[in-house]
Amino acid sequence: MRGTSHVAATLAMVLTAAAGPTAFWQSKPESSLTVIIAEVPGDTHTPVTITGPDGYRVDITKTAVLRQLEAGRYTVTAETVSNPLGDMTPQLREKVVDLARNDHQGVAFTYQFEAPALSPVGAPDAYAIQTGTPTNPVRWNPCSTITWGPVLPLPAAEEQRLTLAFAKASIASGIPFRRVAPGESAQVSVNLTMAPGDRVSGEGEMYFSDSGTGRTIADRGQISGVIGTETSDELREALYLHEIGHVLGITHVPQDDQVMHEVVDESDAKGFAIGDTNGLRLVGAAAGCLDTPLGAKEVRGTLNGSTLTVTWFQPASQPPVVKTTLHLTNRTALGRASGEPAWDKRFVGAGAGPREASATVPANVCDPGISVTIAATNANGTTETPVVLSGCPK
Known about the structure:
This protein is mostly beta strands.
């Protein structure tokens, strides 16, 4: 413990003298546009076109940062896309962005199924949120793919039923799912036991953690079940839909015409009913992304004595970056200690574009056991990027 306490004390930081923008950034005025494209179910291209001044045109299918742009008006347009589950429409089809000189803006596109598969029964309000409230539920980031996979190998027919159930959940919620490849760790683990009998039972759980900003976001889930070998295909499919509903953040309702009724039956295999689907929309794509910031680019640190000057380019994020901090982490046999050197007081740490800041760092910052990162934070969490150091003693 003494060793760990000593390391923590070594990482105590103090403010340094002010450091203004360097000639490097001043000599390259530019504007940038960050286009964030949510993932969709399946291996599907999501075409987005950006047009601007003097015939400018770029076509992209994934999140991209467009840099060295001229000032002017840019139009960003997204298309409806088809995938194995059906057509998906962008919730925002077109966005006009006016970029000023040295301006850095972002736009985000999310998708949802144009015609979600509904079982037209029940009341629209026949749903319940598992954790939180309908206006502020605990949920997954619907703009990133959730991976799932069995703990142990399953019969091929059961794999197919699970795949179909996850597909139906994607259609109802707009959240993309993907079956993991062999050896890959799944965010949602499925543990099924095949047993004699004509009954099924199961449990679905959603686990979540604090993103560090006060927002709670789901990050993993679990489905377990005992499947009677004499049960029908429909009853098994109904159970899988029900448990996936729990994983996504909805829970039991008293109405027996909804999949999320406490007791499932064969009729539930038709798909989520109206109340179920309205609940899934509250925790799904229609509720918006929960993206953390895009990682900083071109992160470089120059050490001059005890002063570390860091330069980087921060892409625009949705929601925007509100704080950027410097992290030093020392991992030793005695444990891990972290420090957060204070930036020069003139650096506010927010916003996008070319950034520069300085801090006083300890003498051991160049040691092999020390990792240096900058951490960009928005309302949804933090993204860390390693700092490439130069100027260390040889």
